[in-house]
Amino acid sequence: MKLNSIKKKAGKIDFQIFCTIILIVCIGIVMVYSSSAYYALHVQEKSTEFFLKKELIWTIVGIIVMIFTMSIDYHIYKKMTLLAAIVTIGCLVAVLFSKPMNGATRWIYIGAFSFQPSELAKYVVVMFMAMSIDNRKKKMDGFFNGTILYLFIAAIFAGLILLENNLSIASIIMIVTFIMILVGGANIKQIACLIPLGIASGMALIFTSEYRMERFLGFLDPWADAGDRNFQLIQSFYALGSGGITGVGLGQSTQKALYMPEPYNDFIFAIIGEELGLIGCILVMGLFLFLILRGISVAIRAKDNYGFMLATGIISIIAVQAMINIAVVTGSMPVTGVPLPFISYGGTSMVFNLAAMGVLLNISRQAKEIKI
């Protein structure tokens, strides 16, 4: 009875968000094909459509999942959160015993498929924070039973991901947790006092790891070792620089021709800059900015505090990831492995991001109308 009444009361989804997501995904598919075709043919020794076909399959799965989550009342996730958290922690522990790839253990292999638990963990932390903050709203201004408690819970997930040699996703989880605690009603002075501690912890993790320290030094002086540790970043500069205002043309990138390692992954934005130029970069950034602003609007208009917190966390993940990826590609921060949402190649990331967008769209269906 309750579900039926909810369906009757539910309005239309935020069509602007839906169209923006589809547009970004379409750009991603085109750019994955453009940036991966040469690599697939000459390195993987596969057909030029090798990565395109895999990305299309996962995109179709992701869109189906998005439509499904878009149709489910978001309040149901409250009942599933604890179970999801336990399963996610189990997966994060299990992945530590999987075979490493490129010096990191981040995937669980199931036959021909691979699954990255850290992608699930990001949204499970958001679900847990939204549920807990909503249930304990009156205690949010407490320091130890509010701010510190939530940061400790998030740190459990982040710590397990850090053991996978994945500082980037661990950092995203902690940043998004900070955002959710702040908007959830925590004492701003308490949050401000913890920021220097967070920065110090990040620096400690960098300087206690040789490869992270190399990346940090490479950020300070990219041209000091352009042929080795800073090679990928320098190739990104070449790609962005050669693209100019209008780009060299779709499919005409030089840097993707075995100059830039795996150009379809985290540095795909550089190929966008080379082939579509500054105009293409501004278009992509503009779409993300519009999506983020619409997501904030959905959060503000959510019919209850749980919807507000859930929408805030979901859109924060997309915003933080997009900003970090673009900052890395443009040399504005040290190189770290953060994919560009909906655009970088990756099945797990695509499916979970689209599933989360479905939840956001469901929140928009039940959002309050604001008359101006």
Keywords for this structure?
mainly alpha; cell cycle; transmembrane helix; 372 residues; transmembrane; two-stranded antiparallel sheet; peptidoglycan glycosyltransferase activity; 69% helix; 2 strands; disordered N terminus; FtsW/RodA
Description:
With 372 residues, the protein is an all-alpha fold. It has one domain. It contains 13 helices and two strands, in the order ααααββααααααααα. The protein has a two-stranded antiparallel sheet. Strand 1 (108-110) and strand 2 (113-115) form a beta hairpin. The longest helix is centred in the C-terminal third of the chain and has 34 residues, at 268-301. The chain starts with a helix and ends in a 7-residue tail after the last helix.
- Strand percentage, roughly? under 5%
Secondary-structure element pattern, one letter each: HHHHEEHHHHHHHHH
Low-confidence parts: 1-8
- Tell me the strand order in the biggest sheet: 1-2
Major sheet details: 2 strands, antiparallel
Strand count = 2
- Give the integer mean of the pLDDT values: 88
Query: What is the number of domains?
Result: 1
What level of helicity do the residues show?
A: 55-70%
Termini gap? 34 Å
C-alpha Rg (nearest Å): 21 Å
Question: Please, what is the oligomeric state?
Answer: single chain
SSE map:
Elements: H1 2-9, H2 15-42, H3 50-71, H4 76-94, E1 108-110, E2 113-115, H5 117-135, H6 143-163, H7 167-183, H8 188-207, H9 210-220, H10 231-243, H11 268-301, H12 305-329, H13 347-365
Antiparallel strand pairs: 1-2
